Amino acid sequence: MNRRPDIIIFNPDQMRADALAHLGNPASITPNLDAFAASEAVSFRNAFCQNPVCVPSRCSFATGLYPHVRGHRTMAYLLEEGESSIFSELKDAGYYVWMNARNDLVAGQVKGLCERHASEIFYGGTVPAAPGTVNPNPRGERGSKNFYSFYQGEMKRDENGKNYSSDDEAVDAAAAQLKAAPEDEPQCIFLGLMYPHPPYHVEEPYFSAIDRKKLRARAKNLPDAQKAYIETLCRKNMIGLEQYTEEDWNELRAVYLGMCMKVDEQFGRIIRALKESGRYDNAAIFFFSDHGDYTGDYDLPEKNQNAFSNDLVNVPLLIKPPKGVPIDPGVSDSLAELVDFYATAMDFAGVSPEHTHFGHSLRPILADRSAALREYVFCEGGRNAGETHCDEYHDAHKHGENVNGEYWPRQKAMSDDAGHCKGTMIFDGRYKLVYRAHGNLEFYDLREDPLEERNKALDGRYFSEIARLQTAMLSWYQDTCDIVPFKPDARFSAEMLWNRVKGIIPPGRVAEMKAFLEKETDISLVYQKAYQLKNENGITSRSLGIRPF
Q1: Angle of CA points 471, 473, 474, to nearest 5°
Q2: Structure confidence by residue, pLDDT tens digits, 374-384
Q3: Beta strands per DSSP E along 283-422
């Protein structure tokens, strides 16, 4: 059989790169991903998302475009009509595109638009709801330490000994699709999971599996003036969280890693389904997250849209190519961006993109893990003053200020124009620079300070490096600020063209000329056709005093 390879995309939400054991975390338990990286795939230690929240990141990696190119910088501006994605492009090329109903990509209010990007959408909801938390009131009252922490702890198990979630349902549905798909039909499977997105909760055996004593040190909080202002605002608004002890943070972090352990088990189920269906060898498999999670770093849970520490922007990225593509399995230190997923998957599929994009196919690094394609990686977030903020659908101006909502501290912080200002990160593998419209620069030497605990922006020893990164950031913006569509527009309407040539056309040829104008808008060809129809007395545009342009 000679067909295009299957494209399998396993996309957990909010998973940090250092949640993987093979990337050096002694507390993590990710055996399926570790074995995958050891013998079948390349795992990128230095892979970075292009925005630290869901929708902008997904709009970016699904198109190969940075969030600023088309303004996809908030949670409420998704792909619109006229914008293609890897899914619509693969579908048009003959792929059967299956995805679960975790959207965060396509504008839901446009009727039929989600279906434009997929052959089939699995909506789920056909199994009983999973049982809830062991603690019936894990948050407590406002002012309690867990009220804004997102920590819920252990989940109950059903009569089968499981907490069968919507993620589990989607994973099993994807596995069934792989087993039932026609052998000669290429499949694109997109699994967008919720885990390990907060709230932090998981059932046994994952809840107790993580050895709390093996957890690595958390990143310490910096003085307010040295770090993102929005983080200061969040801590101020998270009433009760100041009561958190190191033991509390360790418990939250362990539960998060337990959630990642469950994601690893779910990934293993997809690998087994691919092998059982005979589709594994000819499958290009991508495992990556849209962004990371604080999990206690800088005394914060969850994430922020214009903060760029590695806990938020350094994400897992593992790639297994289809058969016949050289592979040097293991961990690569080469820099990569999630826009490179788009370029790589389209490369493997043999499908030409419908628009200019900024990804690089990672095929050369898959063949040689020491190869390098990028000198810098970038991430961006935030908004201009007056623009709607990240969680627009919870906007206090529309729905009232809900101080009891778990996201209220972040929503309150994001309503501050200075706190939620636009920001951009550049990283070269050692040095990281963060520039924002408001506030101080951030600059870190990650070789000396891997947890980004010492902002060196005012340290004169680094001024030349800061200037170099600022120049590179400006060049990047210049190169990527917009794109020209492949399909050109006509400068003239049919009516405009008719009025230019109507004096040339013999009365008996008017209908023929107007029919031509319905199909052709190139003005040179229109004049050529007009004179062909005229075809008398050697009349030319010069003799009539007509200029085509």
Answers
A1: 65
A2: 999 999 999 99
A3: 283-288, 317-320, 330-337, 377-381
- The DSSP bridge partners found for residue 335 are 46
**CA-CA distance, 547 to 549, in Å (whole number)?**
6
Question: Residue 379 is encoded by which pair of tokens?
Answer: 């991430």
pLDDT of residue 137 exceeding 90: yes
Res 107: pLDDT: 94
Using CA atoms of 317, 318, 321, 322 in order, give the dihedral in degrees to the nearest 10.
Answer: -110
* Rounded Cα–Cα distance for residues 67 and 73 (Å): 5
Alpha carbon distance 47, 451 (integer Å): 16
Collapsing DSSP states into helix, strand and coil, what is residue 465? helix
Interior/surface letters 376-389, b for 16+ CB within 10 angstroms, e for the rest? bbbbbbbbeeeebb
What's the length of the chain?
A: 549
Examine the pLDDT at 171 and tell me if it is beyond 90. yes
Q: Which residues contact 178 (CB under 8 A, 6 or more apart)?
A: 6, 187, 189, 270, 273, 274, 277, 279
Q: What is the pTM of this model?
A: 0.93
Segment 504-525 shows an average pLDDT of 93
Which residues, 6+ apart, have CB-to-CB distance to 348 below 8 Å?
5, 7, 284, 321, 322, 325, 363
Handedness of CA 541, 543, 544, 549 (dihedral sign): positive
CA angle 73–188–53, rounded 5-degree value: 20
Q: How far apart are the first and last CA of the chain?
A: 54
Asked whether the predicted pLDDT for residue 400 surpasses 70, the reply is no
CB 365, CB 336: distance < 8 Å:
yes
Q: Which tokens is 59 given?
A: 């709009």
Cis preceding linkage at 138, omega within 30: no
Token pair listed for 230: 């929005």
